[in-house]
């Protein structure tokens, strides 16, 4: 195959590589996460529950405290926010692969056909919006996840029980990656805009300056 790799010396080629890498980083930090909630009650009673993507769970833990059966409830459903974020990351990764192939294989057509740069620009706008909205949604979902797992519902007779949960640093990083992706896709719009007929149509004709 006759591939043009010189495009990676241009900003639009470099940005697509960054899009590809950071898109994977964003959704991998969520899908690869596994958390837990540990319960500890008097008389050395303990238990734990694990949760992971898509963060939809209903845990009920009964304990015998002072001869009375009590329960600790942990319920959460943050699947819609998490799936929205992951779907955005996967689609962004696939689009990055596709457009990189177009850059390498059909670079001449990209430069001579006015429609292809325009579509590239518009798709990038869409993904910029998706990254912003999905990152904001997941940030809100993560806040709810932290609240539910660190403060489960404990019945009155279980008041002497304590709970602890896993570290959220990986999920915090996923939110950072999400907004970083938004910045990268938004920043790329200027370089792509320069490839469209909108920008080139404003450039003075060389014959006019003679």
Global shape: rod-shaped
Can you tell me the number of structural domains? 1
Major sheet description: 3 strands, antiparallel
**Fraction of residues in β-strands:** 15-25%
Class from helix and strand fractions = alpha+beta
Give the uncertain stretches in residue-range form: 204-210
Q: How are the SSEs ordered, and which strands pair?
A:
Layout: H1 11-31, E1 34-41, E2 45-52, E3 56-65, E4 68-77, H2 79-105, H3 107-112, H4 115-150, E5 153-154, E6 162-165, H5 169-193, H6 197-200
Antiparallel strand pairs: 1-2, 1-6, 3-4, 4-5
Helix pairs in contact: 1-2, 1-5, 2-4, 4-5
Description:
- With 210 residues, the chain is an alpha+beta fold.
- The protein has one domain (5-198): Butyryl-CoA Dehydrogenase, subunit A, domain 3.
- It has helices at 11-31, 79-105, 107-112, 115-150, 169-193, 197-200, and strands at residues 34-41, 45-52, 56-65, 68-77, 153-154, 162-165.
- β1 (34-41) and β2 (45-52) form a beta hairpin.
- The protein is rod-shaped, with a radius of gyration of 25 Å.
């Amino acid at each position: 195959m006759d591939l043009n790799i010189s495009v990676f010396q241009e900003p639009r080629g470099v940005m697509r590589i960054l899009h590809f890498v950071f898109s994977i980083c964003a959704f991998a930090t969520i899908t690869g996460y596994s958390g837990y909630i540990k319960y500890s009650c008097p008389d050395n009673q303990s238990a734990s529950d694990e949760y992971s993507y898509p963060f939809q769970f209903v845990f009920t833990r009964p304990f015998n405290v002072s001869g009375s059966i009590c329960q600790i409830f942990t319920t959460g459903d943050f699947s819609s926010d998490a799936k929205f974020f992951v779907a955005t990351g996967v689609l962004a990764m696939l689009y990055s692969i596709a457009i990189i192939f177009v850059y390498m294989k059909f670079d001449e057509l990209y430069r001579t056909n006015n429609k292809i740069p325009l579509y590239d620009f518009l798709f990038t706008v869409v993904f910029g919006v998706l990254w912003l909205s999905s990152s904001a949604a997941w940030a809100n979902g993560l806040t709810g996840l932290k609240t539910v797992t660190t403060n489960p519902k404990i019945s009155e007779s279980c008041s002497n029980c304590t709970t602890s949960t896993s570290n959220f640093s990986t999920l915090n990083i996923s939110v950072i990656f999400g907004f970083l992706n938004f910045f990268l896709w938004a920043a790329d719009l200027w370089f792509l805009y320069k490839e469209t007929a909108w920008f080139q149509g404003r450039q003075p004709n060389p014959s006019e300056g003679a």
